[in-house]
Amino acid sequence: MNNPFIITGSIPEEYFCDRREETKKVIRTLSNGGNLCLISPRRMGKSKLIRFCYDKPECADNYYTFYIDILHTSSLREFTYAFGQKVFEALHAKSRKMLTAFVQGLKSINAKFGFDPISNAPTFSLELGDIIRPEFTLTEIFDCLEKADKPCIVAFDEFQQITKYPEKNIEALLRSHIQHLSNVHFIFAGSEHHLVTEMFLSSARPFYNSTSILELHPIVTEEYIPFVCHWFDVYERNIDAKDVLEIYRLFEGNTYYMQKTFHEAFINTPVGGACTLDTLRRTIDGILEEASDGYRQILSRIPERQKELLYAVATEVKAEKIMSAGFIRKYSLVSSSAVQAAARKLIELDLLTEEDNVYFIPDVLFRMYLQRLKNTNLIFII
Ligand SMILES: Nc1ncnc2c1ncn2[C@@H]1O[C@H](COP(=O)(O)OP(=O)(O)OP(=O)(O)O)[C@@H](O)[C@H]1O
Ligand SMILES: [Mg+2]
């Protein structure tokens, strides 16, 4: 059965909600020769927006586009490997001439490519260990793109990951490459807000002032609510706009959780039937249940003091003055220095976020899970 609320794989244009302005800005920035840094909290829609822009004729017809998710990489060597592999795959699908140039250009690992005996095309049979000098190989990859017969767009998704590599000079190294490339434009996307903003907005860092910044906010209610109602309607189901708004409020506009809810609620609503608040409540209970295994795992790995602080912040939703005597007393915490240490650790793990001295749990569903642990009868959506 077709489900118009897509939560995995690529999203056909008609099921992609809004993001018209953002799409324009991405395409405008890149086609003017600039680079772009795309930031948002988790699961707001960065990766899908990049894919969506890549599919637009302005990009698809005029550029070679490359998309590299580097979340799983933990060194320059792995970065280079992932980059090389994605460039290879993309060129394989698009241009035999460029593919050959690419393989020949990678002199540092040239002997390592295989050949398909039937089509005579190169095959990517490289192992991570084949990259002996990643800086050389990286230069070769960039050189090849610089010489390509069409301009290139390279998106590094989860870019903040490079700050976790053991090598210390990665930001400067990449920055120096990027500065010298005129045929290659970049999108850097990332979700760990404190890392990305520091990397691009702190004047002491190599990437400072090198890109336009696009912050992705929740899709506005004026777009999202009609989108949901429309698709329920098309598939002969009914939903009330004000109930869609309740879900929007509950998840604070988080694209993934809203789409997940309506994806499941759609399944739970028969043709000709109505998706009621009760349906939505049951759907959310199901989503929480499904996520709870993962959340339990997270909780099992963090010490008690950090957990106490998490519970306290979850209860407050937006917690202020968490190191004050009042807050510590209210939640029976140990001391302000203990709270400070716990907060620092939780922020590092991305389980807690601080903005202007206000602390909150960035994953709304995790917060709801914690709230429910404290109060098993808690019913979301009123
Ligand atoms: N414009 C949109 N219309 C419909 N659904 C969308 C849209 N943007 C994102 N989504 C949905 O939201 C989910 C999250 O999107 P995406 O993976 O792009 O977010 P992200 O910001 O890259 O997340 P992460 O921080 O985890 O990498 C996707 O599963 C997708 O189904
Ligand atoms: Mg993403």
CATH-level-4 superfamily name of the largest domain: P-loop containing nucleotide triphosphate hydrolases
Q: How many separate domains?
A: 3
What is the CA-atom radius of gyration, in angstroms?
A: 24 Å
The succession of helices and strands, N to C, reads HEHHEHHEEHEHEHEHEHHEHHEHHEEH
Order of strands, main sheet, comes to 2-5-6-1-7
Biggest pleated sheet: 5 strands, parallel
Bound molecule types: adenosine-5'-triphosphate, magnesium ion
Q: Could you name the CATH topology of the largest domain?
A: Rossmann fold
Decide which structural class fits the backbone: alpha/beta
Count the E strands.
12
Fraction in helix? 40-55%
Point out poorly predicted stretches: none
Distance between the termini: 31 Å
Determine the strand fraction and express it as a percent band.
Answer: 5-15%
User: Which architecture of the largest domain would the CATH scheme give at its second level?
Assistant: 3-Layer(aba) Sandwich
How would the global form be characterised? Answer: globular
Number of helices: 16
- Using the coordinates above, name the CATH class of the largest domain: Alpha Beta
Mean pLDDT: 92
Which descriptors apply to this entry?
alpha/beta; Arc Repressor Mutant, subunit A; 3 domains; five-stranded parallel β-sheet; three-stranded antiparallel β-sheet; binds adenosine-5'-triphosphate; binds magnesium ion
